[in-house]
């Protein structure tokens, strides 16, 4: 029999279960830095202004420590359980900055056209800066709020201004931003975070 001329047969790409599928690697979106720099600076500057209400709220919510005057020279003696308020002052500030961080993380995520690491880092740094400024301002405002205008009498009970004795509390604000933003980015699940560039 004569061979019939025809198109050459090529082996199929899926000839059997032993064949390996070709993985098509999609191009991932690149991180936009240049376009996000100005919005990031705006976020950083705006968040630093939140230090004022944060400091005022802490200076009014943090409990003072009450002590008794035990000598004519103004020496102070602690009252029972009052020293615990030194931890309460830290806890109040920590919860305030943590709540601020969570709110900032959610609001920053809603800036859909600017989602990404640049604005996220600006939000983290902005909350850290606002917390540091609020720590300094809040202690000053608390001292003026609980200022003693006249020498206390012997045996009288006075209130000492709230104080913040640890800088570690400044980590709670950036932690709140990171948790909120990371959870939202994980829930989104897209490579470009659902970003719409204009």
Automatic annotation (TrEMBL):
<feature type="transmembrane region" description="Helical">
    <location>
        <begin position="90"/>
        <end position="111"/>
    </location>
</feature>
<keyword id="KW-0472">Membrane</keyword>
<feature type="transmembrane region" description="Helical">
    <location>
        <begin position="167"/>
        <end position="187"/>
    </location>
</feature>
<dbReference type="Pfam" id="PF10821">
    <property type="entry name" value="DUF2567"/>
</dbReference>
<feature type="transmembrane region" description="Helical">
    <location>
        <begin position="118"/>
        <end position="142"/>
    </location>
</feature>
<keyword id="KW-1133">Transmembrane helix</keyword>
<protein>
    <submittedName>
        <fullName>DUF2567 domain-containing protein</fullName>
    </submittedName>
</protein>
<dbReference type="InterPro" id="IPR021213">
    <property type="entry name" value="DUF2567"/>
</dbReference>
<keyword id="KW-0812">Transmembrane</keyword>
<feature type="transmembrane region" description="Helical">
    <location>
        <begin position="37"/>
        <end position="58"/>
    </location>
</feature>
């Amino acid at each position: 029999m004569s061979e019939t001329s025809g198109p050459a047969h090529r082996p199929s790409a899926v000839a059997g279960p032993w064949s390996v599928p070709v993985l098509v690697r999609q191009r991932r979106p690149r991180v936009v830095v240049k376009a996000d720099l100005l919005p990031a600076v705006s976020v950083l500057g705006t968040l630093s202004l939140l230090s004022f209400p944060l400091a005022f709220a802490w200076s009014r919510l943090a409990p003072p420590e009450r002590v008794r005057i035990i000598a004519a020279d103004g020496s102070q003696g602690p009252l029972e359980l009052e020293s615990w308020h030194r931890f309460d002052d830290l806890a109040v500030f920590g919860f305030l900055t943590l709540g601020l961080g969570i709110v900032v993380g959610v609001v920053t995520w809603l800036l859909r056209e600017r989602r990404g690491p640049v604005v996220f880092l600006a939000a983290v740094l902005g909350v850290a800066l606002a917390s540091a400024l609020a720590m300094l301002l809040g202690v000053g405002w608390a001292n003026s709020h609980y200022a003693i205008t006249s020498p206390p009498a012997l045996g009288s009970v006075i209130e000492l201004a709230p104080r913040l004795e640890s800088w570690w509390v400044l980590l709670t604000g950036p932690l709140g931003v990171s948790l909120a933003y990371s959870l939202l980015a994980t829930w989104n699940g897209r490579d470009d975070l659902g970003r719409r560039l204009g």
